[in-house]
């Protein structure tokens, strides 16, 4: 997803750790406010590696404006060291995953950005009308596209992430599905440009979609270190503490909401995918 225009100043330099003092500096993708948690997780895992094994890593954002598919190619070429994205068969063939779901399933819980004028109309729909009557806008490389199409939803795609908000405001489609941790952040960043957009209040979709760290298939040592760091953070509770602190407002809002949640099958999941455990934030 192309996020260069939204990068905060903190991502213009090494975001976590001091590159000059590191044994190795890792370039990572994707970058932007909605991905901040993923890199805090990596920082936490690598801090465990530093304390347990004496190996220090710095982190540097890869801030060029590239698509997810292009980023995968750059990782294969050694330009990017670590990617944090969801899984599918193609990615598992091209990269080496650390099969621990760092998102605890939260990315698969989707709410919808809509035009405020459509709030009442959509709220009156039953689930069948919601599926058959609406058109959903998505980036062509997002995981939602094949998932929603396989479950009978009509999808309109764009290759440009930013254009989706203008297309929604212009009623080119009815709803823009976003992760529950993404929607409010993205809406706030564009409130001045698109004051007519809001978050739909009555529904959510959920599909199993683990988020992994990925490295080059030749970099098994790095993959093993990241996995050891993640397992150490799970064992001592620091990963859960980070998750709950970062998502506190979202977890509180979720507890107050009364959305009908429609569960979807995910045909993208390769065999052996990480189990989805939502108990830290949902049920």
From TrEMBL:
Q: Which UniProt keywords apply?
A: Signal
Span of the secretion signal? 1-21
> What protein name applies here?
Solute-binding protein family 3/N-terminal domain-containing protein
Superkingdom assignment = Bacteria
